[in-house]
Task: structure prediction
Amino acid sequence: MLRIPPQVMGLMERLECRGFQAWAVGGCVRDSLLGLPPHDWDLCTDALSEEMVRIFSDFSLVRIGERHGTIAVVLEGRPVEVTTFRTEGGYEDHRRPDWVHFEKDIGADLSRRDFTVNAMAYSPRRGLADPFGGQADLRAGVLRAVGEPVRRFEEDGLRILRGVRFAARYGLTPEEKTLAGMTALAPTLASQARERVFTELCGFLPAARASDFQVFAPVILAAVPALGPSWGFQQHNPHHAFDVYTHTAQVVERVPPDLPLRWAALLHDVAKPACFTLDEAGIGHFGGHARRGAEMAREILKNLRAPRALEEHVAMLIAYHGVTRDLGRLQSDQPLRRLLRRLGEKALRDLLALDRADDGGKGTQSAPDSFDRFEAALDRILSEQPCLTLKDLAVSGRDLLDLGFPQGPELGRVLRMLLDEVGDGRLPNDRQALLDRARAWSIS
Ligand code: ATP
Ligand code: MG
Result:
């Protein structure tokens, strides 16, 4: 028995009362069987879209998918997709079917779906339809393609990356032929639309485990080719037991499952192979890899059509990674205060999480003390309610104009200098003191 929300049940009953079959299908069935709350409900039916339009005429409908048999019925602002049973084929471009046929039978519809765990349907009147053994695979933790894996991945290469995402999210192990098919056809990911690859990677990363990076290495390297040189790249460094790719996988697993942090972990050492040097003692160094890595990450994320805000945040995290360890070792907290003013609290908390994961993922003795010190100092500074931005300063640009400073970029520079004076503790955040100092600067 699946617990279907009453309103969705209402749509199903309406179809049934008009003599059609109505099934919940795909992700919602899979998630319900796992005891997880489905994030949306998809229905399928033998009714054609023109029949659905008539049956649901009193609802607001979205009809953009109608040609492929899909009508979205809007329930309290959320669309529930209702799709006519269908098969499809052609896939000349390895992405989109060239034809779809509407069918009368749920079995035909389930056979077009990608993995057995996604190829189940449930009807309160008819029970579970599971012709490919999806429930048994779910219980056994197996990811298995529906039908001949190579053919199914040839039809649509994105299924390979969907498979990685489902394996990670539900802790599934790929069945042998399914994995062989995913591996063999991984190179076809290069011709997939970048946006689709990006979306799948965003689905995969928060769930990713280090072991997925080993099992699905050819897929991940095909999806993010810039990681290729990291694969097996030995670091020749006593702090590192792992090659760059294996270490990267460790760091991804260890950062909190937050999207920008996971992307930053994935790409934080992407420039290491390019920055590698070996000293006379035979020790490997990677000077400049953080800055170079941030540039590469920007390129990679731009290419994947990632939102600009994500690109910015990830590039910042990579550019500064390692800084919390370095600052945590210092006696003075002035550099930390400066960084806090420059980047803000959220960025420093994220950097701390990334650096801790980076340290823990080296496969050698980790040194968490400097991170603990950094965190304690950060908490202490923040509890003092410091003056962090120009807005917190007790004077404004207006005040400086009144003092006779000319309008222009100089004004901003003076304000930032005052902010540094206050932030470093050389001046109180007091209007008169700040005006006196600014006046002194303007005279000297
Ligand atoms: P999620 O929880 O991520 O939404 P989902 O399984 O619901 O997972 P959707 O992308 O919403 O995934 O697709 C709904 C269903 O449609 C899937 O469960 C699967 O049966 C089928 N499906 C989706 N994309 C494909 C594809 N590229 N090839 C074959 N079947 C697909
Ligand atoms: Mg879904």
